[in-house]
Design brief:
four-stranded antiparallel β-sheet, 18 helices, homodimer, 514 residues, globular, alpha/beta
Chain lengths: 514, 514
């Protein structure tokens, strides 16, 4: 059927969607979410049909992505017809019924996700089915490979390429900003890509962005790495395993994360990593709550790494509370710099040294921790960090106190004295986000009391920073309501953690940040 | 944050969506699929955010549904802020993790589906989880009740109200068009709503529409029923259990149907039915393949009916082949009229008489079948059908041969002689749809040979009707490729039904039509 193009001046964020009037759709035999094949001159593409009641007849509305893909202009004539369902959709239906998928089935799905032949409804059903039925080891491998092969890859032309990744889940985890300069200072290559926060108060990309640009092209990354051995960039626009970004968009509202393993390792493989340390924060405050869960995940990582040709070690790290004291992009960047200068909180230094040391030993060093310690104590790591900042386009002379935080701030004090018995990371996250993090880079929380610390009545528990007084007020209100830090002189004085009367369903906190 | 409204002249088909630029979304702390609360004067509403890369900043793009709900104009200023996740989304997440839902949880979900507070991604995840985990009896009841209470209901002011429904799945099933006039002619009230075809060559609404309008308002339905005791109308725009229509839209591409029971019975309850016969076509060619499955479904229907205060009986009917001979809207309407006139295929008459007889006995009659037979043989049923056609705005004098079919047609002949051993309803459906059904009302297939019939070499197997010669050609090609009717003199001559070499995954036919 010949239809006249109406170009819609908006984008859909990737999906190729074509709008039809109800009557035109009916003539084509097309229902909402059916696919149509659009032909224009010699170009041909598949778009998903959206049906609009009041859209003009005999016209086809094309969003920017579809216009670009077809190269058509307003008013041009295209041919549209009902396209058959893609094979990949039958593979998704098979997974819904609990069937195991073969490699070719998974390739078809991932390819159609990347080429936008599958709707978000279909992707949501696929991810839900994966989340409920689980993935076999082979399926995990096939998914990883398909995600790598449908995206770009970077070849730095040398080996080994080291990398470090956290499965995420504890606030204040700025370890990457310390591990990367330590490893690079020791002469190894470590091209670190990271994400921005979705559910947390700061992602590594958000933290580093307070020091220098992070939105680099692949060409720029290669230049930075060839100059400095390392980089700290945002991975979101590089199209390394782009299927992952599309999956995360759908997983986020659903609070499921069935693709954790292939998601992380496909990106590592795409950037050419050969040796990777996976940090698995474990504990009440983390994404992984128990050691059993952590060990299972670790052995899954190592197994999948082997199948993909990646040398992997996992570190189970203490995840009962935030790491360090600062939470929020600028507050965390400050703390990372301080730690690189040999000061900073001891838990943060300890973890960074530990992970860097593991990487050194994976590539043959004898005493990894000693090398890492030396890099910090000699000032080499800080010097390397300044080189990386300069190479990415930031000011290499920056010092921690130069980074703007606040300017609004307020102290939250204890109403009793005692030792910190427990500390809700979920609540701290909510308070930091309420204060404006991660969007307002100077916003966040600085903890003054951590597990086991003694606090006097009237002593400071934490400090809230915000860029606007209205945000500070609402974060303070939330802090008063939540009481995220619980004190007691002896644990036995405070055995009831929470009471559940006619409570509504507990809203579990979901963390999709990697 | 204050934003200027840009009204988009298109509808989304119901969803309330607001479009923001990436930068505006970022300032609001909104990610794609997050909800935003939009306030304008005293109106307030929740919309789901879509983020568009090139949309202008400080503006909010509103689709027609959102514009209507808020009552705003182009260029007006509204306030937008990030809204918390709805409670219903946490209930959906709980179902994803296999938890049982309470009545209040289900009400929250269904209410948010109807009020468009949940995105199609979230609805897809919910339906997928229901499909995989299954529903408890209580969950089925809660869903039905929630679907009824979030829609309109009709009160005809009398009892009993009879109804008949098929779970669907065999082509050519025009039984409702015969049962309704039989029951109405006997003095009982039977307000029949039905759907249009989605995956089949004709829905009852499509069939009846060849005789008279079916898109009636609730007021018009009441008038028709008070005049004639019955009606045959399209249920799609009546907002009886509207959640069901939204669920079906999402289920359709996924090929799942976890809501079959609540979907059917909520609509029956909304129209005030007191006594319902559920037809469960059972067999190779039907949605329900085995007797075991059919009996389980029947007892689920009866149980759910009891919980909802509906008197239900189920009929397991022969579902190995299409019902009657005509397949396609006009061809089927012709056959229904012929059957009401005392002629027509015997299987169709037998089934209609049987189902009408069950209804009569459910409301106290002794020999239901005899009453039904009498209604047809006396001409009362046909007279009633003409009354209903007239009341709905059609021509009461119409005769079967007046209904336009074709005009293109071709016979498909047998290349051998033998008896019909089996007949693929799926293939017949594909051929009828390829010929243009259900959109082209005169298109379809007429079977000349059914199970057990003897056919000579060169004898007619079936006839294809189309409104356009191009459609006839492609339907004939498909028929040649599929060979939907298999002949054999003795079954033992033809034991191999199909061969599976390096075949791709078998594309199971999915039927969502009720």
């Amino acid at each position: 059927m010949e239809l006249s193009v109406e170009t819609l001046m908006i984008t859909t964020g990737g999906s190729r969607i074509a709008l039809l009037s109800e009557q035109t759709a009916s003539l084509l035999g097309v229902h909402s979410s059916d696919r149509i094949k659009i032909t224009c001159k010699k170009q041909e593409m598949i778009a998903i049909a959206n049906i609009a009641d009041y859209f003009p007849q005999n016209r086809i509305g094309l969003y920017q992505e579809t216009v670009a893909a077809l190269g058509v202009k307003e008013g041009e004539t295209v041919n549209a017809q009902l396209a058959p369902l893609p094979e990949s959709l039958f593979n998704i239906r098979a997974k819904l019924h609990g069937e195991r998928l073969r490699e070719r089935d998974i390739i078809a799905i991932v390819k159609d996700v990347v080429e936008r032949h599958l709707s978000t409804v279909e992707i949501a059903a696929f991810l839900t089915a994966l989340s409920i039925h689980g993935l076999s080891t082979s399926e995990t491998e096939f998914l990883s490979r398909a995600m790598i092969s449908t995206g770009k890859t970077i070849d730095f032309g040398k080996r080994p390429i080291l990398d470090k990744h956290s499965v995420g889940g504890i606030p204040g985890d700025k370890t990457s900003m310390i591990v990367v300069p330590i490893v690079a200072a020791a002469g190894f290559t470590i091209p670190k890509t990271s994400s921005r926060a979705i559910t947390s108060p700061a992602g590594t990309a958000d933290r580093v962005e307070t020091l220098c640009p992070v939105n680099l092209s692949i060409k720029e990354i290669k230049e930075v790495v060839s100059k400095t051995n390392g980089c700290l960039v945002w991975g979101g626009s590089l199209e390394l395993a782009p299927a992952d970004d599309l999956f995360i968009q759908v997983e986020y509202p659903l609070g499921i994360d069935p693709m954790l393993l292939p998601s992380i390792l496909s990106k590592k493989k795409a950037i050419g990593a050969t040796h990777v340390v996976i940090d698995i924060p474990t504990g009440m405050g983390a994404k992984i709550k128990t050691r059993t869960e952590a060990y299972t995940l670790a052995s899954d990582f190592i197994d999948l790494g082997k199948r993909l040709g990646l040398n992997i070690q996992c570190a189970l790290t203490f995840g009962e509370q935030p790491l360090g004291c600062g939470i929020g992009p600028a507050l965390e960047a400050r703390e990372a710099l301080t730690t690189l200068m040999g000061e900073g909180p001891s838990d943060l230094r300890e973890k960074a040294i530990g992970l860097a040391g593991m990487l050194f030993e994976m590539v043959g060093a004898k005493n990894g921790r000693a090398i890492a310690d030396e890099m910090v104590d000699s000032g080499k790591a800080m010097k390397k960090m300044r080189e990386i900042i300069a190479a990415q386009g930031g000011n290499p002379l920056i010092n921690p106190e130069d980074l703007p935080v606040g300017p609004e701030s307020a102290l939250v004090r204890s109403e009793q004295s005692g030792k910190v018995l427990w500390l809700s990371t979920d609540d701290i996250v909510r308070i930091a986000r309420e204060a404006g993090a991660p969007k307002e880079k100077g916003a966040g929380v600085v903890l003054h009391a951590k597990l086991g610390d003694a606090v006097h009545k009237g002593g400071v528990l934490f400090e809230i920073y915000a860029e606007r007084s209205s945000k500070l007020t609402s974060a303070l209100e939330l802090a008063g309501k939540l009481s995220p830090i619980v004190l007691s002189n002896k644990p036995e004085e405070k055995m009831i953690l929470d009471k559940v009367p006619e409570k509504t369903r507990h809203e579990k906190v979901f963390n999709i940040d990697r």
